[in-house]
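Need tokens for this chain, all 258 residues.
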Amino acid sequence: MSRFGERLREHLNTIRNAARQVAVGQAQMLRALADTAVLHAPREGDPAGVFTDYAPEEVATVLAVSANSARNQLYFAETVARRLPHALDALEAGEIDLPRLRILEHAITPLDDAAATALEAWMLERGQRRHRTAYAAAARRAVLRLDPDGAERRARERAKERGVWIDAEEDAISTLSARLPADQAEACYRRISDLANGIARARAEDDTRTPDQIRADVLVDLLMGRGEHAAPIGCEIQVVVPITTLLGLGQEPGELAG
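Here are the structure tokens for all 258 residues:
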């Protein structure tokens, strides 16, 4: 092997070992957070997984974060330790990373404990996939496989998470985000893109805006009711539905194209 190859392998091994050390530390921190939540036992009559209001304040002081951030970390750690114990072990062993653990935690949110345990076993048995996007897609397919009859119920539960929020950034810029049911989000994006594409095709030579910039301008015009962009237009959305569902032989839900 060439000197270059040896140095590259050495650096890659260092990266791999460092990633495993990070995972070990993250797992230990999650266990400590979960134990802290247990120490702040819920009051009698509270649902499982709820801790007293003092816990986030104490964790926030140690981590130098806001109480809300500490509360979210405590909820995540307590949920993982209680419902995904083997996945937490896998994180500590370096077999998965923290983002994949978060994918699993998100996937089991609408599932009962038995289905959550089955999903955990299914995903861990099949490894961490090539990248996180593939891992998330595999988790979604596993949920459908394990609880096909619950697709409509899960969609209703997820729809409760819809919302709009704003994150202030620097230099007079903010990020406006929306969490919506998939069909609504797709319809909104298609309308913005269709209008932006029309503007891009007909724009003057001195209009140097990028496609993203045009879409941002169209969004503002639509929300503020400015000009022709506020007029209703059609929007086509493609949905792929299994033939067994169409024939009434199954209940596997359809998927939005892409």
